[in-house]
Amino acid sequence: MRRIFTSVVILLVVAGWAVGAEPRVLFEDRFDKQLGDGWSWIREDSSTWRIQDGALEIRVEPGNAATVKNALVRQAPDRAKQKYAVEVTITFTSDPTQQYEQAGITWYHEDKPVFKLVHERIDGELWIIPGRKPAPRKTVQLRLVVDGEQWTAQFREELQGEFQTAEQGKLPPAGKDVISLQCYQGPPDAAHWIRFDDFRIVELAK
């Protein structure tokens, strides 16, 4: 009986199903000294982004989803073949002052932004969008779970506790999919910077 139990445990570990096992990391970038491989920019302005103190910092400039500057992008894994989560920690280094000032993850499909998971100032308060969940602290970890055409938007403040689900929905059928880190709707006359850290894409069990 002991041999059978041991064999089962070994098989589970090899398959990656052991209790408490970490998910397989498909890509990771902690932005320690430079950008990792595979990133590119939409409307780059090299004077308003930097690697500093072990994180990527981007100035929150005026604009919207159609005109955003310094949108950092990379190709998304094939969601038709695997389920995965996109995670990143973001911090407002200054109190956001503008209506809709925001930062987070945007999903592009066929070169168009079709979805965003962001920390956003609306009517003087900070929220997670979509779902409009209150998130008053300056640092949040965002987690976008993608499974085929289904998405689940999750978050947690200050890296504490379990992830909360903000909203769920549907993406277009898999195609040319790109993940972006970006911020916009910033003030025209003040330098507000967003810190992006601990970006990773992890494979999840179906």
Walk me through this protein's architecture.
- It is a single chain.
- The chain is 7% helix and 50% strand.
- The protein is mainly beta and 206 residues long.
- The chain has one domain: Jelly Rolls.
- Strands 1, 3, 4, 6, 11, 12, 13 and 15 form an 8-stranded antiparallel beta sheet that branches.
- A hairpin with a 6-residue loop joins strand 12 (150-157) and strand 13.
- The longest helix is centred in the N-terminal third of the chain and has 14 residues, at 2-15.
- 29% of the residues are buried.
- Mean pLDDT is 92; it is low at 4-19.
Sum this structure up briefly.
With 206 residues, this protein is mainly beta. The protein has one helix at residues 2-15; strands at 25-29, 40-42, 49-52, 55-59, 71-75, 83-92, 102-109, 112-122, 125-129, 133-134, 139-147, 150-157, 164-170, 177-184, 193-204. The protein is built from one helix and 15 strands, in the order αβββββββββββββββ.
